[in-house]
Amino acid sequence: MILRQRDPDDDTEWSDVADWYNKQTGQDVTRCTVRKGYFLLAPFLEAGMVNPYKNEGTSESDDLRAQRLELEKERIRLRDERNENSRIIRELARKDATIDIVKNVISETVEPHDGFAQPPRVPSDTDMIVHLTDIHAGIQIDNFANQYDSRIMNQRLQAYLSRIAEIQKRHKSESCYLLLGGDLISGIIHSNLRLENNLNVIEQVKAVSLSICEFIKTLSSMFSDVNVYSVPGNHSRCLPNKEDNLKGENLDVLVFFYAQAALQQYENVYFFENDVEESVAIFRVRSNLVYGVHGDKDTISSVVQRLTMFFGEKPDIVLAGHRHTNGLTTVFDTKVVESGCLVGADNYCMDKRLRNKPEQMVLVVSEDGLECLYDVKLN
Predict the structure, then answer these.
(1) DSSP track, 242-266
(2) Of the candidates 370, 171, 172, the residue with the CA atom closest to the CA atom of residue 290
(3) Which of the 8 DSSP states describes residue 197?
(4) pLDDT of residue 245
(5) Does residue 332 sit within a domain?
(6) Are residues 30 and 151 in the same domain?
(7) Which CATH number do you get for residue 363?
(8) I need a surface site. Which of 176, 235, 284, 317 has the fewest CB within 10 A?
(9) Beta-ladder partners of 290
């Protein structure tokens, strides 16, 4: 039965309720039937045990429509999320495939340079670390403090080799450990670099790869063996926005692979990939643990502590670049050596009122650690 609770202010009579009920159901009940039925149900209504009367205008269809709307919105959200995930996966797959293709092309198509007889191994008490960082190949600079292009880049590399030869003769160092410290190319990470570059990114990679191959070939004639390591820089990332780059997506890696493929016939030249962490070169020189980083992810004051906690072993020497200035800092008993740059002061430095000379660092290392440090100017 349909019963209605009477409001004290409602002037509807029980007979009116009975008439309405008879019209709805086709039955014939009296006012007394309705009135007595209400008083029987009233305690349950007051206790909230019986649902109140609902108007047909606010039926359950409204709730169903609301539920259907929420389900449709959720379906669209899931579809959009699935499409976005698919897009990201496609992009990642393309990037990985591109890097793999380039590496394979380098390995298969680069014509190996003819090797020559390696110099005889002469026992010595020292080895040498040659730090080559921040070449920025491809940029063209012409200001009152500096001139730089591909020709001057090669001139400075030759000047660096001459100083290395002098140092090697002085100390008679046996082995050479070459660290390519990143930012080998100018790249496209800033819009103003596109204006300063006179080579596109592909030409930059080709130019610096050829120059570094010649650099390593000359080193191989000075030392019993040459061990080559490389760390990526920030200028050589593939995309301008660093948030869009995957970890390890860096064109400096291609320079390393090119040199490795081109110099495979040089029996005293060895290339070592970063198997533990791709942004850090880890090697030992005369039992001294050396960490090599580019420097964009670390500060000089904290790099020893962070790398020690990260790898679980404290280094004897840390090599860093990025800041374009030679420097030596002692953190506890670890020597943090900063190498400058080959490029010198560009327009960015001029805007910041910064002026630095092209310079690099050469380390002479014995069993006892860093024996001698050379601040090599390359004007």
Answers:
(1) GGGSPTT-BTHHHHHHHHHHHTTT-
(2) 370
(3) B
(4) 61
(5) yes
(6) no
(7) 3.60.21.10
(8) 284
(9) 283, 317
Same domain, 42 and 155: no
**pLDDT tier at 62, thresholds 50, 70, 90:** confident
Distance CA 180, CA 203 (A): 19
* Order of all β-strands in the sheet with 175-180: 269-271, 225-230, 175-180, 127-132, 359-366, 369-377
- Of 24, 375, 148, 347, nearest to 34 by C-alpha is 24
Given 33, 52, 71, which residue is the final one in a domain? 52
Q: What is the pLDDT of residue 286?
A: 95
Two tokens at 132? 């080559």
- Cα Rg of the chain (Å, integer): 38
Are 63 and 69 in contact, with CB atoms under 8 Å apart? Answer: no
Q: Which domain range does residue 21 map to?
A: 1-52
Specify the pLDDT at position 232.
92
Does one domain contain both 260 and 371? yes
Q: Which amino acid is at 261?
A: A
The widest CA-to-CA distance across the chain, in whole angstroms, is 125
How many folded domains does the chain comprise? 2
